[in-house]
Amino acid sequence: MIIRRIGLVLAVLISLVALVPALDIGPDPATGQLGVTAVAAAVLAVLVAVVVVVLVVPAWRGSEWAGLAIGGALLAGIVTSFPVFFAPPEVVPAGGVIAAAVGTLVTIAVVAMVLVTSSSLALHALAVIVVIALYASVVSALLTVVPPQAERLVHVVTAV
């Protein structure tokens, strides 16, 4: 029960901290308009924060559905970091890929803490997501330091 409650506190903190970069959107310098991806990420971050804050009390009291909803919202919130992995290097701030990868892994760990009393199916699915996120994090981190000619080697070594 203590692990679950620590996870709930961390879930609230993560969802509120994620609002700051998500809402810091500006117009694209090339077009002068707000990008659809930036607006969608901001809306998703706000929705995740609202779900987590509204459902934290029922989840704290032991409601399994509220814990599952918080876990699902946090996992959906990870989607907001995906553009960092696929954006051109000149758009992503220094260390942005590493920060997004670490944030994703921390969020997944918090979801595991929140779902610690839930079904084993949810925890097994979470384990699969952790493995995929770890793979993506390692590949992203390595691709920032290796020359372009070695990208295929990075993918192969990381997969092995």
Q: Give the CA-CA distance, first to last residue.
A: 37 Å
Radius of gyration: 17 Å
Structural class: mainly alpha
Helix content: over 70%
Tell me the fraction of residues in β-strands, as a range. under 5%
* Helix-strand topology string: HHHHHHHH
Q: Count the DSSP helices.
A: 8
Q: Report the count of strand segments.
A: 0
Outline the low-pLDDT stretches: none
The major pleated sheet works out as: none
Mean pLDDT: 77
Specify the overall morphology. Answer: flat
What would you say about this model in short?
Helix content is 73%, strand content 0%.
Question: Please, could you describe this protein's structure?
Answer:
The chain is mostly helical. It is 73% helix and 0% strand. The chain is built from eight helices and no strands. Helix 1 (2-17) packs antiparallel against helix 6, helix 6 packs antiparallel against helix 7 and helix 7 packs antiparallel against helix 8 (151-159). The radius of gyration is 17 Å and the shape is flat. The N and C termini lie far apart (37 Å).
List keywords for this structure.
mainly alpha; flat; 0% strand; 160 residues
